[in-house]
Amino acid sequence: MTGAIVPGHAADDEILHELGSLLLRQVRGEDIACQYGGDELILILPDASRAVTRERAELICEYAQMFHLQFEGQSLAAVTLSLGVAVFPEHGITSTGILRAVDAALYRAKNQGRSRVVVAE
Predict the structure, then answer these.
(1) 112 burial class (0-12, 13-18, 19+ CB within 10 angstroms)?
(2) 24 vs 103, higher pLDDT
(3) N or C: which end of the chain has fewer CB within 10 A?
């Protein structure tokens, strides 16, 4: 049985690279995927409904759990994501308002447990 290691900075970079690749496979031509912070990624889905956006977030969460990443010859610990979802104009009418709403949803997801999607209130 292969052990699992908890990621360090170099391993984190590998995980972010894989997540970036996953996001790029999940985007439509009009979508925008980018790194927003150190370990935060953002996916902008123009003209997507709340239901479609949530479904896409849940699918990404599921796909990330299927990663079987190796780093320096060892298996990395399972990848789990906390995802926040916000929709324009329901959760904000400016980029600042949307980012505030999605950030609050993200932290609610983190507080509720691993591999969770939370839609802004």
Answers:
(1) exposed
(2) 103
(3) N
- Please determine, for residue 4, whether its predicted confidence score (pLDDT) is greater than 60: no
List, by residue number, the catalytic residues.
Answer: 39
At 29, the amino acid letter reads G
Please write down the HEC assignment for all residues of 15-84. Answer: HHHHHHHHHHHHCCCCCEEEECCCCCEEEECCCCCHHHHHHHHHHHHHHHHCCCCEECCEEECCCCCEEE
Tell me the torsion sign for CA atoms 5, 7, 9, 12: positive
> What CA–CA distance (Å, rounded) separates 26 from 59?
9
Domain 4-119: CATH architecture, name and number where available: 2-Layer Sandwich (3.30)
Q: How many CB atoms lie within 10 A of CB 17?
A: 11
What is the pTM for the complete model shown? 0.82
